[in-house]
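Quick one: structure tokens for this chain, please?
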Amino acid sequence: MSAASSSTFRCALLATSAAASALCLILLAASSYGAIAVAAEHIPDPSQRKADTGEIRPFRVDVPDASLVDLRRRIAATRWPDRETVDDRSQGAQLAKLQELVRYWGTTYDWRKAEAKLNALPQFTTKIDGLDVHFIHVRSRHENALPVIITHGWPGSVLELTKLIGPLTDPTAHGGSAEDAFDVVIPSLPGFGFSGKPTGIGWGPDRIARAWTELMKRLGYPRYVAQGGDWGAPVASAMARQAAAGLLGIHVNLPATVPLEVEAALAGGGPAPTGLSEKERAVFEALNTYRKTGSSAYFVLMSARPQAVGYGLTDSPAGLAAWILVHPGFARWTYGDDPEESPTRDEVLDDITLYWLTNSSASSARLYWENGGRSVTSATGQRTAEISLPVAITVFPEEVYRTPETWARRAYPNLIYFHEVDEGGHFAAWEHPDLFSSELRAAFRSLRSAQKGDDPPKVRRPPTSPAPAPSTNP
């Protein structure tokens, strides 16, 4: 997206989402401003960090009890706004549903269960480009497993991707064959979770892509693939555009395929461009409705003023939950009313609690600012025409943007796989991990011969589990 069209797009979104934005900001300011969350105590002082050495260090999550006590205290002291004036979610999280969720969060929910699940996985940190990068690394027991680096987005985290580890690393136990095995690397984005927080500007998708390339090099992988949804998609696309050393191809589930003329029509509030097929016109109308209803208010605010948003999110657990749940990926989530639903109530609270305990509301929001207001679904903004490596796409029916295949083939010169599945949404890996895993197997199957054509990867084998330490704070 050009600077002019980006500005027009921002202004249009701001105009259409002003009411929702104001309501969210009022909610975020609900809790009185006090001391910085105790959780911040286990985030290291940047001045104490060592220089890049290439060292990979075992990591364990060890949240102080005081941080959990403080969280419950703040939840109990929540100052609530009045009820919304509509009977749907068009003004944001509904008061009664949010109060019920937050009450459960403060009385029954147990973070230690999430902590134990994370600590059952091999976790590590390594310093890249001056920043600590946290990642999960699980190797398959099968020979010739294809390494894949999978990147989350906002408001997700590594937690939304952990359900993929079993099906990808042990496919024979999940309906696949040994030839479909992957070694799995799941990093936390800079400013997210247990990764370090950038203290200067410049940590956008391109720089993150270079960091991920370095990470795979340190792990000893000469050939690998990359996958991403939400922010993970522009990161994976940047890796492909940079033709990262050893990268064989990418798979994305939020592809950057919106053509320039469609962007211009959306930004200008005009009619659909002429010449669109019936399916393309339907997608245009869906995008137009998305814009007009203010569904991207979160994108606009965090792109423009991430620090301002961060103050309320850092001080109010209820405000943080309300802000995360305003994301359209949660539009159909039932707040745990459906026992068969995935993610479950506890899983969503695991994710929200991770943001709270790592004090990463502002630092994660800055990724939107770093992106300069460029749409993550814009073919021009993400420079997809410069990508010559193989690209695979899966379209999930409840995703916020469902690309037509015609736009996908126009955007990516080397599209090797395109598939529309019957279920799943924005958090598809969380919702349907077996389906998502089967898509990765199919998408990358044709690239395995390139991986096998070289000498066997000389992989640095980290310990099978992180070693306990007196203090393993990130």
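The chain has one domain: 3-452.
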